[in-house]
Specification:
The structure holds 2 protein chains of 2 kinds. Chain A is mainly β. Chain A has strands at residues 5-7, 10-14, 19-24, 29-37, 44-49, 55-58, 61-65, 71-76, 85-93, 101-103, 107-112. The termini of chain A are far apart. Helices cover 0% and strands 52% of the residues of chain B. Chain B has no helices and 11 strands. Classes of the chains: A mainly beta, B mainly beta. Chain A binds chain B through residues 1, 6, 33, 35, 40-45, 48, 88, 90, 97-99, 101, 103-106, and chain B through 4, 31, 33, 40-45, 48, 50, 56, 58-59, 90, 92, 94, 97-104.
């Protein structure tokens, strides 16, 4: 089936550093979503993007919907220990039903205090 | 403010046993989903229900059945569990925006 390429797979950073991760697809999406998952919990929605070129912030998090509609990135500024978790991108196709939300394989973030 | 509630949280089954995973949401969402999460694989859609009374297959439906009992509840049934179904299962619901997930059921089939 269709897949999203999410990178990097994992990151080990120092507290205070900025973080950047991205997702790319061979297909056009009309929606990009970014989720965070903490151990033992389900993913929690961080940011939703609906228009090509859209740049949206949520606190220290900023995400962009790529102009080609085939990619998105998530930046975290001034990381803190509670940013630890797995970050997933997800995309929905044009004309897709509610079921056509495709997830990347995740970026595991570790933050050293 | 419960959101999406899944039961049980943990389950161990023997190969060939059956069980039903329960999911309920209190947000009046039309759409509900079942995903499985395996290491390095991300989340894969098993089945979804766009509205009460309808269900559709996702990416990995084999070995599973679902029932949309009413608007609130969407259950996932394993008729004859296999070791390959060892995974963490997540239920989710949504309207126009992104999905809200439950906290998961960790299933081990031995």
């Amino acid at each position: 089936g269709q897949q999203l390429n999410q990178s990097p797979q994992s990151m080990f950073i120092q507290e205070g550093e900025d973080v950047s991760m991205n997702c790319t697809s061979s297909s056009i999406f009309n929606t990009w979503l970014w989720y965070k998952q903490e151990p033992g919990e389900g993913p929690v929605l961080l940011i939703a993007l609906y228009k090509a070129g859209e740049l949206t912030s949520n606190g220290r998090l900023t995400a962009q919907f790529g102009i080609t509609r085939k990619d998105s990135f998530l930046n975290i500024s001034a990381s803190i220990p509670s940013d630890v978790g797995i970050y997933f991108c997800a995309g929905r196709n044009y004309g897709g039903s509610q079921g056509n939300l495709i997830f990347g394989k995740g970026t595991k973030l570790s933050v050293k205090p | 403010n419960a959101g999406v509630t899944q039961t049980p949280k943990f389950q161990v089954l023997k190969t060939g046993q059956s069980m039903t995973l329960q999911c309920a949401q209190d947000m009046n969402h039309n759409s509900m989903y079942w995903y499985r999460q395996d290491p390095g694989m991300g989340l894969r859609l098993i089945y979804y229900s766009a509205s009460e009374g309808t269900t559709d297959k996702g990416e990995v439906p084999n070995g599973y059945n679902v029932s949309r009992l009413n608007k609130r509840e969407f259950s996932l049934r394993l008729e004859s569990a296999a070791p390959s179904q060892t995974s963490v299962y997540f239920c989710a619901s949504s309207e126009a925006m992104g999905s809200t997930f439950g906290s998961g059921t960790r299933l081990t089939v031995v």
